[in-house]
Design brief:
The chain is an alpha+beta fold. The protein has one domain: Arc Repressor Mutant, subunit A (Orthogonal Bundle), CATH 1.10.10.10. 44% of the residues lie in helices and 15% in strands. The strands form 2 sheets. It has a 3-stranded antiparallel sheet with strand order 1-3-2. The longest helix is centred in the first third of the chain and has 15 residues. It is globular.
Length: 163
């Protein structure tokens, strides 16, 4: 994992691959159409902002970046809710329990390490934990629909600072 990169499991082959952003937009368009809603320019701008992000973004981050273009807080909130419902965006909690967002389409499953000192969020994969949880659920007849792990602690830099 590279320390300068937060969206580690959002590799350039996905984000930069020809047609990726358009596939995400099309999934969102289709979802909105089924709900009788329109893919507005404001929704497109919010989605585009998420697609080029290099870190997990809060509603406030998105609003602050786009408010100059006439996009309001309510529009950001409602669009993020729709993006979550369409399974294009996933919510992660920050060190204070506030939601952060990341694009999910075609990304491998991953979990998050959240530093309670500096707020950095790191993505991680734990194949061993996945196997144990699947085995345990199978043994007790529990059918997993989805899960997420968010581990809160201190990153290496913050641990080193505290001594």
């Amino acid at each position: 994992m590279t320390p300068d990169k937060e969206l580690y499991f959002f590799p350039t082959w996905a984000a930069g691959r020809k047609g990726y952003a358009e596939r995400v937009r099309q999934v969102f368009r289709d979802y909105l159409r089924k709900k009788g809603l329109v893919f507005t320019s404001q929704r497109s701008t919010i989605l585009d902002h998420l697609l080029v992000a290099d870190r997990h973004l809060s509603q406030e981050d998105i609003y602050a970046a786009l408010k100059g273009g006439g996009i309001g807080k309510v529009t950001v909130f409602r669009t993020l809710k729709l993006l979550e419902e369409s399974l294009l965006v996933e919510r992660v909690l920050d060190r204070y329990g506030h939601p952060l967002y990341e694009v999910e389409l075609e990304r491998p499953h991953h979990d998050h390490l959240v530093c309670v000192s500096c707020g950095v969020v790191r993505e991680i994969q734990w194949p061993e934990i996945e196997k144990v949880q699947e085995k345990t659920c199978k043994e007790i007849g529990f059918s997993i629909l989805y899960h997420r792990h968010e581990v809160f602690g201190r990153c290496a830099l913050c641990v080193a600072k505290k001594g």
